[in-house]
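tool=predict chain=A
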Amino acid sequence: MDDYIVIKALENGVNIIGLTRGPDTKFHHTEKLDRGEVYIAQFTEITSAVKINGKAEIYTKHGKVMSDERK
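tool=predict ok
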């Protein structure tokens, strides 16, 4: 599994939650980023998904995605 994503926080308090693979999806890792901080995540045999709360830029092999702004 060589897929990486890069997450850049555009505000304080961006939460990143890693989710496990398998029949019972569970939270297995959390991070909290402040504005300007960057987090690099890799999808592995354990990590199947990442949930991001807050305003952030997400860079993948498919391009850049912006998370929605909080209102």
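Residues 4-66 form a domain with the Immunoglobulin-like fold (CATH 2.60.40.50). The mean pLDDT is 88.
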